[in-house]
Amino acid sequence: MSSLATKGAKGELVFTSFLFALSIVILWDTTQLTESALTGSVSPKAFAFGVGGLLFALSAFQIAQVLRGKLGEPEGIEGGEATSKANWKALGLVVSAIVLHIVLLPFLGFMIASTVLFFLVAFALGEKRWLKLLIISAALSAIVYFGFTEALQLDLPFGFDFTQTTPVEEEW
């Protein structure tokens, strides 16, 4: 192995080993969570176990690949090459979309606020087909909303709650 390949292998091994250790911490920490008697069919632990297990499997696979000599390929940008200017307009649009999401969430609910967020972020990243972007943003928002509310049974604000929640005093 050349010096550069050895250096790359060490770097990949360190990074992947960190991810492997992180997966063990996630899995161990998930086992320490207390179960609520009010949980439905899917426990909140399921998502954490899924993330930890997937990270464990993928990082173990990557460690095996690096030890076999299969290293990642650089993207082709060499040190000292000029890159294009930073796209401050796109960054500003993404930051604005996040702030707008925070502001709209209590009023319009998760699905509408997230559709706006996904739409603006994808638009900032260069997608210009508005109708396609709107449909995909709405679908992604609905998938996330129902994934959290139905599968994980976590409450996300639906929005447009016009019910009056005035306290009713009862006489004893």
Explain what the structure shows.
- The protein has helices at residues 3-31, 45-67, 88-108, 110-124, 130-151.
- It folds into two domains: 3-67; 88-151, no CATH class.
- It is built from five helices and no strands.
- It is mostly helical and 172 residues long.
- 64% of the residues lie in helices and 0% in strands.
- The protein is flat.
- 8% of the residues are buried.
List the helices and strands and how they pair.
Blueprint lengths: L2 H29 L13 H23 L20 H21 L1 H15 L5 H22 L21
Helix pairs in contact: 1-2, 3-4, 4-5
Brief summary:
The chain has 172 residues and is mainly alpha-helical.
Quick tags:
172 residues; mainly alpha
Low-confidence stretches: none
Instruction: Give the C-alpha Rg.
Output: 23 Å
Number of strands: 0
Strand content: under 5%
Q: Give the topology string: H per helix, E per strand.
A: HHHHH
Distance between the termini: 84 Å
- From the spread of the alpha carbons, the general shape counts as flat
Query: Helix share of residues?
Result: 55-70%
Can you count the helices? 5
Oligomer: single chain
| Biggest sheet descriptor | none
